[in-house]
């Protein structure tokens, strides 16, 4: 595979868009070009490389092995060029777009992000909080916080914390049934979201084999942080990640009646595309958040 010294940058830009979007038509829409013009630019870069970069099928394209090797390198190169131009212009601010689960955003990130902004005043933070798994190739997001096993193809993953769960409730609610001394006592109270998959896992680990959760009225609040608010208000028992609610426990608004914590083997991870691993703002955020969790763990 040979590359001439004067390869066409515009054709590389078109290739990057087509590879990222998986479509010549969508690449043309993004770049303001016709599909014919996109096809011509792709042909130019293929002639320059000396190998086909896409497999053309009816209404569908797919990267060849050569295209798959080239695409991430081209994306990374354009990211570095954009960053270099921004620095040359003397741009004072660079936006960092973070996607996070709602619970992590409200219970950890919102409480700590101020220290990142103080350390990096030239980076403007934008946060999108929802539980949908974003597609980096289609959405304008720099980094994401995800819960899972950390094995997402094409992404760099850094483990932040283990996701554990345990029942939590307000002390006042517990007193209405004479206290909670054994796991089965929880069934005397309203269970917040009894259809949550964490409940049967925890009850089974606690030795309660027949909690009959399906017979209870479902109450889905949409996010763990909302369930925690309901528990603090004495509306029931919620199954939560205790690490997020240490302040509420210290203030006497919540308590964890049993030391037993369950886990699905999932962790919280910081993730971002491998091709963008050297972007300065991503490196800055990565170094900051990993240091914060290292400090929290006392390591």
What class do helices, strands and sheet pairing give? alpha/beta
CATH topology of the largest domain: D-Maltodextrin-Binding Protein, domain 2
Low-confidence regions: none
The total count of strands amounts to 9
Mean pLDDT equals 88
Fourth-tier CATH superfamily name of the largest domain: Periplasmic binding protein-like II
Question: Major beta sheet, specifics?
Answer: 5 strands, mixed
Q: Kindly, what is the distance between the CA atoms of the first and last residues, rounded to a whole number of angstroms?
A: 48 Å
CATH architecture descriptor of the largest domain: 3-Layer(aba) Sandwich
Counting copies of identical and different chains, the oligomeric state is: single chain
Counting H and I runs of at least 4 residues, what is the number of helices?
A: 10
Give the ordered list of helices and strands: HHHEEHEHEEEEHHHEHEH
Look at the structure and give the CATH class of the largest domain.
Answer: Alpha Beta
Helix content: 40-55%
Gyration radius (Cα, Å) is 25 Å
Spatially, the strands of the biggest sheet line up as 4-3-5-9-6
Q: Name the shape in a single word.
A: elongated
Domain module tally: 3
Assess the beta-strand content as a share of residues. 15-25%
Features:
single chain; 299 residues; alpha/beta; Arc Repressor Mutant, subunit A; D-Maltodextrin-Binding Protein, domain 2; 3 domains; five-stranded mixed beta sheet; 10 helices; 41% helix
